[in-house]
From TrEMBL:
Keyword set, alphabetical order: Cell membrane, Membrane, Transmembrane, Transmembrane helix, Transport
Organism of derivation: Kitasatospora phosalacinea
GO terms classed as biological process: xenobiotic detoxification by transmembrane export across the plasma membrane
GO cellular component, one term: plasma membrane
Protein name in UniProt: Bcr/CflA family drug resistance efflux transporter
InterPro entries: Efflux_drug-R_Bcr/CmlA, MFS, MFS_dom, MFS_trans_sf
The organism's place on the tree of life at top rank: Bacteria
Location in the cell: Cell membrane
Primary localization class, coarse: membrane
GO molecular function: xenobiotic transmembrane transporter activity
Pfam family membership, one: MFS_1
Bilayer topology term: Multi-pass membrane protein
CDD domains in the record: MFS_MdfA_MDR_like
Residue ranges annotated for the Major facilitator superfamily (MFS) profile domain, each copy included: 36-421
Length: 421
């Protein structure tokens, strides 16, 4: 059973089961217009689009900027670090000022940062631009989740996140395919020009299509002290911390794949950027299908504990399979690819469930809770993304070991901290 819910001032109330919260709170079947659902899904998709669109171009930009593979992967790490910083900024800020203004400011800054990346003349400048891009783009991710939390609770929220996931889940499918096709007509800089256009389009869509969901009476008027107390109250709650760590380490497993798959599959298994985009797309379809299965079917028939334990066990199995396929059986890509597909499918169960349960516990501090979830996940992702190239050489075995380690840490966190009673 979840622990106490945490208010905007860090105080805790008596614990409620998600089913009890859902029963006590009116939950309209269609709380948002269709256009708003599409916009919110696109905002959540901005994160994977930012990380995935340019992945097929990593080898090309490395050569063009006269750099190395580990240095090129720092462009991904830099973006993730920026998202960590930005979510800690925009999440609590949206609890104070409302959702619209911080969201629009972040999207404008994201568009400018994307232009800086497109015209970067050296790897350090590109990394700096990616950090700024991550800081600004995080506003879309953290505030979109908070907007949903403003309107829904419990199981209804998880189901709506699955609906948003249907849209945002297209991002990791479309992004590498689009990036590979862009490379046919332009160079790596063109992928960042595409992000400039996307940022401008989302800014316009939010300006005209997303209404304020946090009325003034529900905002907290305190300064830094109130924000710190709210975050501290969340972190002191054992069960919230358990879901936070579960989501964090699971996301680490995901980003071990996202950060390492490009160099591992292209450099180790010698596949082309177009073939890599196909592999990435197939794996992303598995993620999308599992997310929809979870939101529309599994959450109605299985307990949250069963779903999370099963998903985490499958993720660990996927990591172990990659290690075995590269050290014991030597199956090549034929063994590694299905294991990575299995990993992506498990994330469609783990991440919506863990994030939804955590947000359910913070009805009056949704921005801060969303910021902590995003901070933990992207910080872990920033650490693990370059690990597959330790020693200067990409390794599928190391990639599998990192996935396995992160999955086991997530499972241990859930079992130890999210126990009933």
């Amino acid at each position: 059973m979840p622990g106490p819910t945490v208010g905007s001032d860090g105080d805790q109330t008596l614990p409620l089961r998600p089913q009890e919260v859902a029963a006590e709170t009116p939950q309209p079947a269609a709380p948002f217009a269709t256009a708003t659902v599409i916009t919110l899904g696109s905002l959540v998709a901005l994160g994977p689009l930012t990380t995935d669109l340019y992945l097929p171009a990593l080898p090309d930009l490395t050569a063009d900027l006269h750099s190395t593979a580990p240095a090129a992967q720092l462009t991904l790490t830099g973006s993730l670090i920026g998202m960590v910083i930005g979510q800690l900024l925009f999440g609590p800020l949206s609890d104070r000022l409302g959702r619209r203004r911080p969201m629009l400011a972040g999207l404008v800054a994201y568009t400018v940062a994307s232009a800086l990346c497109a015209f970067a003349g050296s790897m350090p400048v590109l990394v700096a631009g990616r950090v700024l891009q991550g800081v600004a783009g995080s506003a879309a991710l953290v505030i979109a989740r908070a907007v949903v939390r403003d309107r829904l609770e419990g199981t209804a929220m998880i189901r709506f996140m699955a609906t948003m996931g249907l849209i945002s889940g297209l991002a990791p499918i479309v992004a590498p395919l689009a990036g590979a096709q862009l490379l046919r007509v332009t160079d790596w800089r063109g992928t960042f020009v595409a992000l400039v256009v996307l940022g401008a389009a989302l800014t316009a869509a939010c300006a005209f299509g997303v209404r304020e969901t946090l009325p003034p009476e529900r905002r907290h008027g305190g300064g830094l002290g109130t924000t710190v107390r709210a975050i501290g109250g969340l972190l002191r709650d054992r069960v919230f911390l358990g879901y936070l760590l579960t989501s964090t380490f699971a996301f680490g497993a995901l980003f071990a794949y996202v950060g390492g798959s490009s160099v591992v599959l292209q450099d180790v298994y010698r596949i082309s950027s177009q073939t890599y985009s196909l592999v990435f797309a197939v794996n992303s379809v598995a993620l999308l299908a599992a997310t929809q299965l979870n939101g529309r079917f599994l959450v109605q028939r299985c307990s949250e504990r069963t779903l999370l334990v099963s998903g985490l066990a499958v993720a660990a199995l996927a990591g172990a399979s990659v290690v075995l396929c590269t050290t014991v059986w030597d199956t090549g890509l034929a063994g590694v690819w299905p294991a990575l597909t299995l990993l992506m499918a498990s994330m469609g169960v783990i991440l919506p469930s863990a994030n939804g349960q955590a947000l359910t516990m913070a009805p009056h501090a949704a921005g801060s809770a969303s910021a902590l979830l995003g901070t933990g996940t992207f910080l872990c992702g920033a650490v693990v993304a370059p690990l597959s190239s330790l020693g200067g050489h990409p390794s599928a075995t190391v990639l599998g070991a990192v996935v396995l380690g992160c999955a086991l840490l997530a499972l241990a966190s859930f079992l130890a901290l999210c126990r009933r009673g």
